[in-house]
Structures are given as C-alpha cells and as structure tokens.
Amino acid sequence: MSASIELLTIGTALVDSIIKGFDPKPVSASGYRAESGTLSVGGEAVNGAIAAAKLGVRTAILCSLGNDSAGTLVTAALEANGVDTGRIVRSDEHPTPVTTMFVRDDGSRQSITNTAHRYHFHPERFLGDLTGVRAVVLGSLFRAPFDDPEVISAVLKAVKSQGILIAADTKLPNFRFLSLADLKEVLPLIDYITPNEDEARYYTSKSDPQEMAEVFLSSGVKNVIIKLSAKGCYFQNAERSLRLPPLRVEAVDATGAGDTFLAGFLASLLNGASVQEALLFANACGAICTTKVGAAAALRDRAQVLHFLESHRE
C-alpha cells in the first residue's frame, strides 16, 4: 500500500439496485411499477471510501469482489473517484453481491440480500503495509466479513498494533448473529463505534441514546456515536457527551448516509477538527447524501459541505 494513504476502509462492497416509489399493486399478472430504478455502487466500505476521497482524504479500500460485471462496475466507480483500489481482491469463487433496495417517499429504505452477501473473505490476509495510514474503518461490524469473531480479532489486533485509529460502523445481522459479548476481548481496540438508532437498540436492548452509549462504553469501546437520522446524532465517551441537532434537507434516499457521515467525521477529525466540529461536519455530509438517489450521487467535495454548513447557520 502506498505510504501516502491516510484512510483505509475494509469490508462490504456491492451493487445496489435501488427501486424508488414501488407500487405494490400489480398492473398485470406478473408486472409491477415503480417511480424509478437505479443501479449504484454500494456497500459500507465503498460508500465510505468514495465519500472520504471526495472530501480530500487520500483513501484506499480493502474488499472482495467477484470477477464479474458487478465487480468491474464497483472498481471503476472507486477509481473514478480517486480511491486506491490496489488492495481489492477479485475472485471466481464468489460473485459480487447485489442488493435490492426499496426506498420510501421519506427516504427510508428496506433491502433484500442474498447468499452472495454471505462470504468468507479474510481481509487480515491482505492488509499489507499500513505505513502512513492514520485511520481504518470497518464497514461494517456484524456483517460479512466482520461477522466472524476470528476475522474481527485478527484485523483489529493487526491494525491497532500499528497505533492506527479504528472506527467501526455497524449493521443489523443478516446471516450470522453476534452479540457484543461475543466480541468482548477486542471491543476495547475500537476507538469509535457508529451504530444508528435501530442498530444500537438491537445490540444494547436500550431505547435511550445515553443508555445505549453506556452499554457500548462498558464493553470497552472508547467513543460512541449514535446516528439518530432526522434527530441528529449523540456522542459519548468517558469524559463527556454531546447531542447535535439535525441539519434539515428534503430527503430523497438515505442509502449510504451513515457511511458518508462516518467518512465526513473522520475527514474532519484527521484535518485537526475537534470532536464537536467533526460531528457537525459529519451531520452535513450525511444530510447532503440523502438529497439524491444512491449513496455516492449527492456529495461532491469539501467546499460543498462547507457551503452547506454556512447556509444552515442560525
């Protein structure tokens, strides 16, 4: 890996087939209608890498793709956005996952996964040289390849042995189910964990953001950021807590908003911002992401985010 790389994202890479405005009433014996259908590259590692690169962070990705047209589409999109793709592992053994996303009018969505999402990739075998890397993102914890405790442990220990900051996004499980207790030995290696409200509720059995955060902190994670969607975000560590309100936009599609939020947070943090400043910048990145269909469609660059923040000053 090039020594110039600052951020490495590791994890899920796929293609999203996004269906917006689906009408469940059939128009024929086998036909349905929708407002639109869009193909978009996705997966947490891809979304985060593209967003970070657009924000000016020198970014690389480590993921697994099939030797198929979907894998070629993902690789081309990453390269077009300036992401270092030298650590992508392509194989005939496993196809590139394709997710079908149904997006509602308010931008929220539901997804359909398939067995291609259940793969046994071992990123710890392909980490390579981490010289110069300042932060690593696991995208996402509890989804393949990070639904295997041995893989999680090996990656976290290898990265942390280099003194690198570790951020882990989370997802609800789809094939293999882990709890926080299953990862108790390695959770203290995570510097930032960023579940959304539904994920935090699932893994902590709590409904209040402060109580959710306390469960993660008691498990050893150093800093917790709970993404509250239209309600903003909540941050807590051992010293303090912060709650930031949302930045209002006309939401179209929330796909990738959480990944873009985390990319914005780390881009700002690596640029020397305080945690509060980084959270505000992240809120703006996540909000902008929701204004177009597809995870990588709306965010353009850092200047756009700064202009957005300026226009939302009270």
Describe this structure in words.
The chain contains eight helices and 13 strands. It is α/β, with parallel strands linked by helices. A nine-stranded mixed beta sheet has the order 5-4-1-8-9-10-11-12-13, with helices on both faces. A four-stranded mixed beta sheet has the order 3-2-6-7. The mean pLDDT is 94.
Mean pLDDT: 94
Number of contiguous helices: 8
End-to-end CA span: 44 Å
Overall number of strands = 13
Strand arrangement, major sheet: 5-4-1-8-9-10-11-12-13
Taking the sheet with the most strands, its summary is: 9 strands, mixed
User: What's the order of the H and E elements?
Assistant: EEEHEHEEEEHEEHHEEEHHH
Name the overall outline.
globular
Share in β-strands = 15-25%
Short description:
By secondary structure, the chain is α/β, with parallel strands linked by helices. The chain has helices at about 45-55, 70-80, 150-160, 195-205, 210-220, 255-270, 275-290, 300-310, and strands at about 5-10, 15-20, 35-40, 60-65, 90, 100-105, 110, 135-140, 165-170, 190-195, 225, 235, 240-245. The strands form 2 sheets. The chain has a 9-stranded mixed β-sheet, sandwiched between helices. It has a 4-stranded mixed β-sheet with strand order 3-2-6-7.
